[in-house]
Structure formats: C-alpha cells, structure tokens
Design brief:
8-stranded mixed β-sheet; single chain; globular; alpha/beta; two-stranded antiparallel ribbon
Length: 281
C-alpha cells in the first residue's frame, strides 16, 4: 500500500492513546522523513555529489546562456575545466527529452579525484538552470553551436585569469566542445578527451542519426596549434565512439596522442584509469 504524506499525518491522530514520549518520538521521526523526501525532490545527482564533496556551486552568466558551475577550491597554477557529455538529449529515438541533465555525471565524479584547481562547467540548459533562452534545440541539433561554444568560453574567462593556463577535459560530446573551445583560447595548455565525439558527421552516419546541421563539427575546424598537448582516450569496448573513428578525426592534428583503454566502454571504467591520467598534467 502507498502512503501519501497526508495519509501518514492523518494516521498520527490515532497515536493519542500512546504514551506522550512515544508520540513525540514518532512525530519527530515522521517529520524528519517528510523533510528528507521533500529535500530530495528535484535534486540532481550532480548537486548531491557537489554537496557531498563541498564543491562551491553557482549559476553564472556566459553569453548568451546561464551555466551551472561547481568548483573544487583547490590551490594550484593550472585550471582544469571538466565538460560533461550530452546527457539525455532524447528520451527515445523520436522523442526529445524535456531535461538533458545526465543521471550519472561522469566528469564530476572524475573531478572528485583531481587535486588541481578545477571547475565543472555546466552546458546551457543543463542542471536545472532557469534560463528563458532554453529550448530543446540547444541540446539537440545545436548542442555544439557557435553560440554554445562562445557562452562556455565566456564562463571559462571568468576563472582562467587567476591561473597560468587551462586544461580542457571533456567526455563524449564534452570532448567535441573541448576541441572547439581550444580553437578560441590562447591559454589552453592541453586538451584531454574521453570517448570524444570529434567528428559529428561520422558519428551520426554510423548510428543512423540525423546530422547536427546546427552545430560545429570539430573535424571541420583547423588543427590546433602544436603547442597544445592533445590526449584522446577511447575504450576498446566502446561501440558509440570507436578508435577507428578517432584515428580518422585526428589524422591532421599535430602531435595528438590516441590511447586505447582496454577495459573501458563509452561510460564505464574511466574512474580506474583517471588518477594515472591526472598524474600527467
């Protein structure tokens, strides 16, 4: 049987025959349970992780979007910027999601392991940001549009002046955005992608998706400067982004390193290798 809050509170009326101390304890327990349920409603996994690890949370303006940002508050000379994948842009193959926020924010979980100063940079319309500009087009066809990249760039510019340089780190679609952002910024020391969607046309064709005509394709952009280190990781078990796809996308990128992780797929098992990757930056 399902008990609503009102039914539970009504049930306490029968408790008046019990000892006062029992009634008091029962009501306190009930009040705590109700508050816990209310507090848990609408809180994303990312918000819970940020709270658990005492990350500073703020909503900041880019241009033109608002963005949710989590900061780890660590000290250091180089800022690490984590960019999440696409989350849930579609509920089904033919039905757009009303909220693209990922259930499992992999990049935030990886940032937990990072001892360098780092921010987790929320994409437009993700993580419950109340932005009048938001509509599904910004997490579907235009998910990597110039306006999205420019707005993310503006937010990075709020934090980057306090550091000697920036390392951009992105998973899946966040990898596409990391490469596009590196085109715009003079302070990027390195780009690290995990299962990065670095050629959106090839990705769409492979999976039978409609091409993202409203987005920029990293594969169509000029190569990054040779002074930017590029490390691109891909899981050997990944069927979404394969090593072959990345080899073709990176063929013109000077000095780009493609590293295949044997036991990883698109989402799984990155936590195990992440401390070793962080030791390189």
């Amino acid at each position: 049987m399902h008990w609503g809050v009102g039914a539970a509170l009504g049930y306490t009326a029968t408790m008046f025959r019990l000892p006062v101390s029992f009634r008091f304890g029962f009501r306190c327990l009930l009040a705590w349970a109700v508050l816990a349920v209310v507090a848990g409603c609408g809180v994303s996994t990312a918000e819970r992780i940020a709270t658990e690890h005492q990350f500073a949370a703020e909503t900041v303006p880019g241009d033109p979007f608002l963005h949710r940002v989590f900061r780890n508050g660590r000290a250091g000379e180089v800022l690490h910027v984590y960019i999440e994948g696409d989350g849930r842009p579609w509920r089904t193959r033919n039905r757009v999601s009303l909220d693209p926020t990922p259930d499992n924010p992999l990049m935030l979980e990886l940032m937990v392991q990072d001892s360098a100063p780092a921010i987790y940079l929320g994409r437009p319309c993700y993580f419950g940001v109340e932005d009048p500009l938001c509509s599904p087009i910004w997490w579907t066809d235009r998910r990597y549009a110039g306006a999205v990249v420019a707005s993310l760039d503006r937010v990075i510019g709020r934090y980057a002046p306090n550091y000697a340089g920036v390392v951009l780190i992105g998973h899946s679609g966040g990898g596409a955005l990391a490469m596009l952002l590196a085109q715009r910024r003079a302070d990027v020391l390195a780009v690290v992608t995990l299962a990065g969607n670095l050629d959106t046309y090839t990705w769409a064709a492979r999976h039978g998706y409609t091409p993202l005509t409203g987005s920029l394709n990293p594969a169509d952009q000029p190569p990054l400067g040779g002074g930017i280190r590029q490390l691109h990781l891909v899981g050997a078990q990944d069927e979404v982004i394969t090593a072959e796809m990345l080899e073709a996308a990176l063929i013109d990128q000077p000095g780009a390193e493609l590293r295949v992780v044997p036991d990883a797929d698109h989402n799984c098992c990155w936590r195990a290798v992440w401390p070793g990757v962080l030791a390189e930056f």
